[in-house]
Amino acid sequence: MPYARLAPLLLAMAVAPAYATEPLQARVDDVIRPLMKQQDIAGMAVAVYANRQAYYFSYGVASKADGQPVSPDTLFEIGSLSKTYTATLAALASAEGKLDLEAPAQRYQPALAGAPLGKLSVLEFGAYSADCLPLQLPDDVQSPEQVLAFFSAWKPRSEHGTRRCYSNASLGLFGDLAARAQQQPFADIMNNQLLPRMGLKHTYLQVPKTEQGLYAQGYDAQNQPVRVGPGPYADEAYGIKTSASDLLRFVRLNMQPAELSPALRKATAITQAGYFQVGTMTQGLGWERYPYPASLDTLVDGNSPRLIREPQATRRLNPALPALPAAWYNKTGSTNGFGAYAAFIPSEGKAIVLLANRNYPNEARVRAAYEILSQLGHRE
């Protein structure tokens, strides 16, 4: 059946486990169906955790070419949501005594010795507050040698710790330093240590051949098929591909880490601590948090383009604020063909994951997640 005729049928057949109640199904349908139509999204996977249960809802198609329907196991690119995995990797190294987050970068990358950036702390790079590094490295900076030369020649633009500039370059260096502290390649630590230790069996930096059939096709602004390509710090900053089921597990374990090892429990607390204050948002490592209850306007503003594209005044919190149960934690992520969002509220025991094979505005993601979670009531 051609996609044009198949898509409406699939959209009407949201898939959820048997224990998803009809009212919950209807609530999610009422939010997601109009969103997909408005944003011209081919397929979405939604996962919700509430009342100690996981619920999955799948819409549309993973690929327009073959009409394969989305399922909870469909693999999506999650873009900058990958930063929360990188942060967890670094936090685990800290918890196990392998990485000092307050150490200068040059301790783990001696080639930065003598460069201004080399004197700044590992943590500052993880919180985008070492200096106003660019969102992306220049196009002509590709090889590891060129990346290192770029950092070595960097001239400070502000007093470190006073400006937050959201940056793949900053977070990428953060992940690289964490790997160097362990004297292993970043991808090896992610693939062979962090992901297995968290029980994430369908989360990848590079989707293996055996799983290619589950890898959704992304679509760009012109509705052309596209997938993320290689680049400097791609693995560290935006390289994760995962399913709604695996991503919800990752988010739930951040919210309810009791089943994790002691070191991983400590790592989740490190990522959720508050290190810098940026307006109403408190910057953790990977995660960004807001006092709960948080207004929709606050969350929309905190995930707006200006927080990504423009420098923001920031203030170092010393000592860092501990992780808070009564907080809204979230992170967005995008590639050219995918859009993702995850949020969780520990005090309410609620979490949500939105995955789409199209990059659509953050505001629409936040509004959808907020509307769904706000209808779930309080924790039992």
Can you give keywords for this protein?
9-stranded antiparallel beta sheet, 3-stranded antiparallel beta sheet, 19% strand, 380 residues, alpha+beta, 14 helices
Walk me through this protein's architecture.
The chain is globular and about 60 Å long. The strands form four sheets. A nine-stranded antiparallel beta sheet has the order 2-1-16-15-14-11-10-9-13, with helices on both faces. Strands 3-8-5 form a three-stranded antiparallel beta sheet. It has a two-stranded antiparallel ribbon with strand order 4-12. It has one domain (3-84, 188-374): DD-peptidase/beta-lactamase superfamily (Beta-lactamase). Strand 9 (274-278) and strand 10 form a beta hairpin. It has 14 helices and 16 strands. The protein is 37% helix and 19% strand. The chain has helices spanning 3-12, 22-39, 82-95, 105-108, 122-126, 144-152, 168-181, 186-197, 234-238, 244-255, 262-272, 296-302, 305-309, 362-374; strands spanning 43-50, 53-60, 76-77, 163-164, 203-204, 218-219, 225-226, 241-242, 274-278, 281-283, 288-291, 312-313, 315-321, 327-335, 338-345, 350-356.
Largest sheet: 9 strands, antiparallel
CATH structural fold name: Beta-lactamase
Strand neighbour order, sheet with most strands: 2-1-16-15-14-11-10-9-13
Q: What class, by secondary structure content?
A: alpha+beta
The helix/strand order is HHEEEHHHHEHHEEEHEHHEEEHHEEEEEH
How big a fraction of the residues is strand?
15-25%
> What's the gyration radius in Å?
20 Å
